[in-house]
Amino acid sequence: MFTWLLIQRLSIRIPSSSLTNIRHSVTGEHKYTPSLVSFVKMSLKGTTFTNNSLLGVSRTTQSQSFGVSVHPRTVVAMVNRNGRPESSVGVSVDNVVKELHAPTVVGVVDPKLKEHSAAVDGGFDDVYGGDIATNDDFITPLSVSVASGYALLRDPRHNKGLAFTEKERDAYYVRGLLPPAVVKQDLQVKRTMNNIRQYEVPLHKYQAMMDLQERNELLFYKLLIENVEELLPIVYTPTVGEACQKYGSIFKRPQGLFISIEDKGRILEILNNWPEKNIQVIVVTDGERILGLGDLGCQGMGIPVGKLSLYTALGGIRPSACLPVTIDVGTNNEKLLNDEFYIGVRQKRAKGQEYAELMNEFMSAVKQNYGENVLVQFEDFANHNAFDLLAKYSPTHLVFNDDIQGTASVVLAGILAALNLVGGSLADHRFLFLGAGEAGTGIAELIALEISKQTRAPLEEARKKVWLVDSKGLIVKSRLNTLQHFKKPWAHEHQPVTDFLDAVKAIRPTVLVGSSGVGQTFTKEVVETLSSFNEKPVILALSNPTSKSECTAEQAYTWSEGRAIFASGSPFAPVEYNGKVYVSGQSNNAYIFPGFGLGLIISGAIRVHDDMLLAASEALAAQVTQEHFEKGLIYPPFTNIRKISARIAAKVAAKAYELDLATRHPQPENLVASAESCMYSPNYRKYR
Prior knowledge:
The structure is a single chain. The protein is 41% helix and 11% strand. It is of the alpha/beta class and 688 residues long. Among the domains are: 236-401, Rossmann fold (3-Layer(aba) Sandwich); 405-587, 3-Layer(aba) Sandwich (Rossmann fold); 591-623 and 636-677, no CATH class. The chain has a 7-stranded mixed β-sheet with strand order 14-13-12-15-16-17-20, with helices on both faces. Strand 10 (375-378), helix 17 and strand 11 form a beta-alpha-beta unit. Helix 8 crosses helix 9 (217-226) and helix 18 packs across helix 19. The two termini are 36 Å apart. The model is unreliable at 1-129 (pLDDT under 50). GO terms for molecular function: malate dehydrogenase (decarboxylating) (NADP+) activity; metal ion binding; NAD binding. It catalyses: oxaloacetate + H(+) = pyruvate + CO2; (S)-malate + NADP(+) = pyruvate + CO2 + NADPH. This is Malic enzyme. Keywords: Chloroplast, Metal-binding, NAD, NADP, Oxidoreductase, Plastid, Transit peptide.
């Protein structure tokens, strides 16, 4: 006896015994036919078979093994075991698998339902219509109807919780699976924020937000967008640092792709396991230098997940177009290797040729799978790999290192804005950095590029305005032979200076930048010395998380007697000094990378150019108003971050067109409006 399942141009004939096996494999009674389950799922989505295989089994072998015959045919129905068609009701993928014991399931695909491209080309095929629908349009939450609303309530992309209307509850079999009340999304936002505010520990708030993201994606982003200043420190730095440290203990559900050194030779296959096939942004880390916390190995996944949440909330990139990836090559963190809850490969870090070959396979597979226009953002790689990867793949891939380039762009924006408070041009100032790693040298180079652009002086001459201090002291010519390659451009003529306070006295900077990853290194003596020869010293304590900040806002304002222009990498509360309240800015990369990425996407850019970073900095600085300056701010509030991101995206896209690096033609007349129109909306849609 056979049951017929006819699905989207495929007619799949499955023996009843095989259906029983599928049911057992789902219930856990037996482990049978996992490939056939995938076969059914892929067929329901209309996915074609690639490389003649499913999970390594050829189509011929697949059919012979399970008695499945495949014929080209359109979707009709599934009949019962007596061979008689039943009345039309809907069927979901999950219910085909989970409720095969039911005598009746009939799935009919809406003939009016067409595959749409997302608002920005290169996104996934939007079979639901949700990404191109307006808030008033109706969409279908699943590509086939649903026989049971139970699965729909557990689909984070389409679950609306109590916001399902009375009609939707009937149409999608949700009636009785929810309490009777129907509430608006705005009330859900209010209630959820009230619940999150009950938690006193930031990590608990982080976990609550991650739980929400896995339960109701639209509500998660609605909540984050409308409460960005309050929730940004929760979903990203500084709280995400603690989350990464404890990732193995709090791990519940994977949120990205984990590619290990043991997967060498199979990376393309692993990328194909990801359900979305048209990715626009990948954030990848190897976990070796997570914030200022060091080597966290596989547990660094919290960083790509957090970054991509911000790409969506702040830059409007659709969640389905984002892919978080962790490259697990081991860890040198002995504490993690001995931790029974550690979730990564338990070995020392691979390096050298083995590491390079794995990364090369990954980059090649990404380009092969997702095309020329996919943006790969390198995140929290150690210095020795970060610079090499950026240099190697910049000529051939669309790559961006947020630690080097994103940090540089946001800091340059703050400095450009600060000129309105301290006066002079960029070339009139002297810059001293504590820290000469990825962030320090990246910021220094972008400052020099902007000085060179403004003055038309050679880059080598512009670099002389910038001095760096590393763990061995001031970087000078006499140290040239022992310096790492990325530090050598900053070796100027000067006598050796080993103490940082002495370097401040010798260089007499107007702008002090901390990127050391070591807390409390801007001491009282350092700040007082800086303030002694600057009426308004600019102090940027950029290291994250808060415990690693070179000084606090209170220390900067107090030790400078209220004269400092201060910003930090992690947020600080307002400070009262001598009866005046000082509000410090946050030099957060989240100002730059979401809009920067959006600009690359809307222009179809194929490479990142330094002039794009300068354009992003100038666009951000232009958003700081006189009202902000009067409060001592050198960055605009995050409350308007989506408008800020749209303006940054427009400037980046314009530069891509100017440099002939754009592939999306013709160029829109109004790039700001184009950017805003492409942004993902987290508002609930009406379901048919």
